[in-house]
UniProtKB/TrEMBL annotation:
Organism name: Penicillium cataractarum
GO terms under cellular component: cytoplasm; nucleus
Protein name: Kinase-like domain-containing protein
Alphabetized Gene3D superfamilies for the sequence: Transferase(Phosphotransferase) domain 1 (1.10.510.10)
One BP annotation, GO: mitotic DNA damage checkpoint signaling
Length: 250
C-alpha cells in the first residue's frame, strides 16, 4: 500500500525487481501496463485515476501504481454466503472485462481468482487486475506465463496459443465459483476433465453452462466472453432486494 502525499488517498504499488534475466519481461509488462492504463472500463482496475493526478511516475521500471486499493478477491467468494445468482453476476463482470480487453486486441493470460478483485459484495462489483502476462500478439509462443491450475491445454512448451486461453481460465474460475473451492491442479483432458464437465452439467444456469462451454480442449470450440455475456442479461433484476434497515423503535 502507498499513500498519495498530496491527497492522502491509498493505492497499491506493484514493485518490479528488474534484473538482466527478467529485464525483457519487465519491459513488456511496463509497455502493456502503459497501454492498458489509457483504456477505461468499469471492470478493469485502473492504474491511474483522477484523484491521483496521472504523472510519468505512476508507471516506472521500479513501481506500478494501481488504484483503487482493494483487498478482497474472488478467492474470498468461494467460501462466502454469496448466492448462486450473485456469483453468476460476478462471473459476468469478469467476462465483461475479458471481452473489453479482447476487443482492444489484448490477451490477459493470467485469469485466476487472485487477479479478480471484489470492490463490493452487495451490489456485486468486480474488477480485473494484474496485466503482467498480457500480450497483444495473435499467436503467442508459450513462455511460461500464468498460473499452472488455470493454464489451458495448449499452453505447453513448443506450442503457440491465442486469446482462447483466457476463456479456458474463465471456465476454471466459473467451475470454482460453482464448487465453492479451488480446483488446485491443472486439468488437461481425460477422466479428470470429464468429471468436472459432468459436475457443471448438473445445472442449466448461465454460470454452469458458460463455464462448461469454455472448458473445451479445442481452443476454437470454446465459448468466447462476448458470446457468453447475453446469457447473463437480467440477472441483476432477478436478485432479491436488499433488506431494508428498520431504524424505528421496537
Amino acid at each position: 500500500m502507498v499513500v498519495n502525499g498530496r491527497t492522502g488517498l491509498s493505492a497499491a504499488a506493484k514493485r518490479n525487481l528488474k534484473s538482466p534475466k527478467n529485464g525483457y519481461a519487465v519491459d513488456q509488462e511496463i509497455e502493456m501496463t502503459s497501454r492498458i492504463s489509457k483504456l477505461t472500463h468499469q471492470r478493469i482496475r485502473n492504474f491511474l485515476d483522477d484523484e491521483w493526478m496521472p504523472t510519468v511516475d505512476n508507471i516506472t521500471d521500479e513501481y506500478i501504481i494501481i488504484s483503487p486499493l482493494l483487498n478482497a478477491t474472488f478467492r474470498s467468494l468461494y467460501t462466502s454466503n454469496v448466492s448462486h445468482v450473485g456469483r453468476s453476476i460476478f462471473f459476468s463482470q469478469l467476462l465483461e472485462g475479458i471481452a473489453f480487453l479482447h476487443g482492444h486486441g489484448i490477451c490477459h493470460r493470467d485469469v485466476k481468482p487472485d487477479n479478480i478483485l471484489v470492490k463490493s459484495y452487495d451490489p456485486p462489483e468486480a474488477m480485473l487486475t494484474d496485466f503482467g502476462c498480457a500480450s497483444d500478439k495473435t499467436r503467442i509462443p508459450y513462455d511460461s506465463p500464468g498460473t499452472i491450475p488455470y493454464l489451458a491445454p495448449e499452453q505447453v512448451e513448443g506450442q503457440t496459443h491465442g486469446r482462447a486461453v483466457d476463456y479456458w481460465s474463465c471456465g476454471m474460475v466459473g467451475l470454482e465459483l460453482v464448487r465453492g473451492q479451488v480446483v488446485g491442479s491443472r486439468i488437461l483432458r481425460g477422466h479428470n476433465l470429464t468429471r468436472h464437465q459432468d459436475f457443471l452439467r448438473d445445472s442449466d444456469s448461465p454460470l454452469n453452462m458458460c463455464a462448461l462451454a469454455m472448458l473445451q480442449v479445442d481452443p476454437d470450440s470454446r465459448m468466447t466472453a462476448a458470446e457468453a455475456l447475453p446469457y447473463f442479461r437480467g440477472l441483476e433484476e432477478s436478485r432479491p432486494p436488499r433488506p431494508m434497515r428498520n431504524d424505528s423503535p421496537a
